[in-house]
Design a protein that fits this description.
The complex is a heterodimer of chains A (414) and B (94). Chain A is of the alpha/beta class and 414 residues long. Chain A has eleven helices and 18 strands. Chain B has one domain: Folate-binding superfamily (Folate-binding fold). Chains A and B meet through helix 8, strand 12 and helix 11 of A and strand 3 and helix 1 of B.
Chain lengths: 414, 94
């Protein structure tokens, strides 16, 4: 893989940046691959990268029906944290943070991972008790979490109104949490995967699976049949549609979740602030824009656009905490389709079809898991068995009852 | 946001209603005889259709009565509204 250098910057800069090489090829699909990954978002591209790098499987195609990273990878609020309650979630999400910490160097591409800290507010006695219970559980799992009292919060977030309708009584702080640049994550993984020989095929929609005697042998696409020894679906909200094509159902439902970006203003908000009770999560991007999100539409929808009432709720929550932002203008609003499971934990699993695996159900919080999700799913595709970190996340948990319930414990009600 | 015509009263904004998931999922008649697989399927597995979807709604902040929608989940278009005592319309209704 080509490593960027100061000399590169100078050379291409002097040529008015017109001479930079393409970051990945645009290959024609081959008739057959060792592994086909359906979905060219962060999770699919990371899976391809780790398949090539960790397992030496380079004859891999990533099929994307639209353009690379155009789905939920580009439609989230880029928050990264690992302060989950359950042991198996903490292990998986914290492994992800450790991968994030070395990701820019590993990919040779700046993903702008900024560990500015994530602050989760408590607005009631119950909230306080809950963050103490969760904070201690998280701490025992080896994940950093600290309690903040109101005086400390006031010093850290001077513009925030602690005496709002539901006063801020305390907070839980994860210093290693933060944000990253979403596009750079997709581009960085794509570039690194391509350098390892992975074919990234955009505008190639999967129309069906070819299944012989209960074993998948390839995928039917808009660009013809592509054979595969193993197929991995990392298709987020489209996972259910793909599952229906393969003849089974998934324990998840799809709903749009919105996010918004404001006009840029001077830096005033260093941390990521999340509130469960008044339902908001907000951070300030490096460009100065506020990036914020709130609730998902409460019904099944693939519309990729959210409802006005959710916009109002989000803005109301923002102004409750930051009244001085009342004249701030929002520039953009969008929605991503979230594949939400009953226990709000992902599904990294084999399926009723042999050699067909799914990585889905990340719901409203998959961005933070991008590197770990790719890492463990690559292991699953390479060996046919789950990575130890992914073992609890199999689909069989919905039959055995061993759910990983993060519904109420995942900082913000999803 | 949807504009929903409640079959019991009148057309109202969606915020007056609450959503209760896929319709016509029958609770097992003989609960004690069900396997773990059957219980798991009943509780957690859904069709999650992209397209015409039959679903249950409650007019929670209105007449407090239940009804069903046939709604296209890709476009948001409501194809049919029907009461629980009415037969489910075909997926192409509207």
């Amino acid at each position: 893989m080509h490593k960027h250098s100061v000399l590169d910057l100078l050379r291409h800069g002097l040529a008015h940046n017109r001479t930079w090489p393409r970051m990945w090829r645009t290959p024609e699909p081959k008739p057959e691959y060792d592994a086909v990954i359906v979905g060219g978002g962060g999770h699919g591209l990371a899976t391809a990268y780790y398949l090539a790098k960790e397992h030496g499987i380079r004859n891999v195609a990533v099929l994307e029906k639209g353009w690379l990273g155009g789905g939920n990878t580009a439609r989230n609020t880029t928050i990264i944290r690992s302060n989950y309650l359950q042991d198996s979630s903490a292990a998986l999400y914290d492994f992800s943070i450790r991968l994030w910490e070395g990701l820019s160097a590993e990919l040779g591409f700046n993903v702008m991972f900024s560990q500015r800290g994530v602050i989760h507010l408590a607005h009631s006695i119950h909230d306080l008790q809950e963050i103490q219970r969760r904070g201690n559980a998280i701490h025992l799992n080896g994940v950093d979490s600290e309690f903040l009292d109101p005086a400390r919060i006031r010093r850290m977030l001077p513009l925030m109104n602690l005496d709002c309708r539901f006063p801020v009584l305390g907070a839980l702080h994860q210093r290693r949490g933060g944000v990253a640049r979403h596009d750079a994550v997709a581009w960085g993984f794509a570039r690194a995967a391509d350098a390892h020989g992975v074919d990234i095929i955009q505008r190639c929609e999967v129309l069906g699976f070819r299944i012989r005697g209960g074993t998948v042998t390839g995928v039917e696409t808009t660009r013809g049949f592509i054979g595969a020894r193993v197929v991995g679906c990392a298709a987020a909200a489209a996972s259910g549609v793909l599952a229906n094509m393969a003849g089974f159902r998934l324990p998840l439902e799809t709903s749009p979740l919105q996010a918004f970006v404001s006009e840029p203003v001077r830096p005033f908000l260093h941390h990521v602030v999340m509130s469960n009770a008044i339902h908001l999560y907000v951070s300030q991007s490096s460009k100065g824009e506020l990036v914020m999100g709130a609730g998902s539409d409460p019904y099944v929808s693939y519309a990729q656009r959210g409802s006005f009432d959710q916009v109002e709720l989000a803005v109301r929550a923002l102004l409750e905490l930051f009244p001085s932002l009342s004249r701030l203008r929002f520039m953009r609003q969008w929605a991503g389709n979230c594949d939400i499971t009953a226990d709000r934990s992902p599904i990294i699993s084999s399926t009723p079809v042999r050699n067909l695996f799914v990585n889905c159900g990340w719901g409203t919080g998959g961005f933070k898991a991008t590197p770990a999700s790719g890492f463990v799913f690559a292991h699953c595709l390479a060996h046919g068995t789950p990575h130890p970190l992914a073992e609890p996340f199999g689909m069989d948990r919905f039959h055995s009852g061993a759910l990983i319930d993060e519904g109420a414990a995942a900082t913000v009600a999803h | 946001m949807l504009l929903i015509r409640c079959p019991w009263c009148s057309e109202r904004e969606q915020t007056e209603f609450s959503y209760h998931g896929e319709a016509h999922i029958a609770r097992p008649a003989t609960p004690m005889d069900q396997t773990d697989e059957q219980w798991g399927d009943y509780l957690f597995f859904r069709s999650n259709t992209r397209g015409p979807h039959r679903e249950r709604w409650l007019h929670a902040a209105g007449c407090r009565r239940w009804f069903n929608l046939l709604r296209d989940t890709a476009t948001g278009q409501i194809l049919a509204v029907y009461r629980p005592d009415e037969p489910a319309p075909a997926a192409t209704a509207g």
